[in-house]
Fold this sequence. Notes:
By secondary structure, this protein is an alpha/beta fold. The protein is built from 13 helices and eight strands. An eight-stranded parallel β-barrel has the order 1-2-3-4-5-6-7-8, surrounded by seven helices. Strand 7, helix 11 (259-267) and strand 8 (271-278) form a beta-alpha-beta unit. Helix 5 (67-84) runs parallel beside helix 6 (109-126), helix 9 (201-217) runs parallel beside helix 10 (229-241) and helix 12 (283-292) packs across helix 13 (294-307). It is globular and about 45 Å long.
Amino acid sequence: MLGPVILAASRSDRMRRLVSAAPVTKQVVDRFIPGETVDEILPVIQGLTGNGLELTMDVVGEDITTPGQASAARDAYLELVRRLAPLELGTRAEMSVKLSMFGQALPGGHELALANVRPVVEAAAAIGTTVTLDAEDHTTLDSMFAIHEELRKDFPQTGCVIQAYLFRTEADARRLAADGSRVRLVKGAYKEPAEVAYQQKHEIDKAYVRVLRTLMEGEGYPMIGSHDPRLISIAQELARGAGRKIDEYEFQMLYGIRGDEHLRLAAEGHRMRVYTAYGTDWYGYFMRRLAEKPANLRFFLRSMVSKG
């Protein structure tokens, strides 16, 4: 299986340099990351929302090494909020953040990440939108959930992400499926050991359905993060079975993947949110997109051959 190999490469400085130097890389990266600056991304936001889609915005960047970088990440999100304000999109354009980008892995990182993310959540609330805390590898999750709980005291609309491939997630879902919660369910995109996570696709898919059932039958707001047609169909069945109206859950997919499906679901009246990343530190995000789906990797390799 190539997925684990690619995920390992996402942490390799040597592979970062190699991939970044390939002439074709930027053309392929642009499929998943449509801009590096706020100025470049604003027309994308307006185009997607003009087509009836919603967005969650991610300023890419991970594995920071200094508090100054964490502060810069905070400021990048605050600038995004400032530029979103005149568009008056409300929750049609929310934000997703990785707490590692806010200093979570540094000494005193839990407190540092909370201090950096809080102003972003406050600013988002001031323009009528919200923030979702992305899940990262399993060693970070207790801190992420604690920060999520703390933020929800003042900003109950703050969302979080859970990953179906982790053994712990079914229990997390039962705890989180409460009134007012917003929970995005994804399969998982980090290299996790067999001691904590399912390794086989069929096991992960079964876990995804079990967790999704818990969320649909709960009192919160489920956000279905998947491009899998079968899981999308199952999600609709579970929603009907739980008596949910079409606006009481939403689908989320990545920018650059299954764009026609984004539009189809929106045309049917579903809330369809596009996870849209931008920024210069794109390598880790890009490599996880390649690892998630063989078709993404084939697309990249074909492009390298045809352009090389």
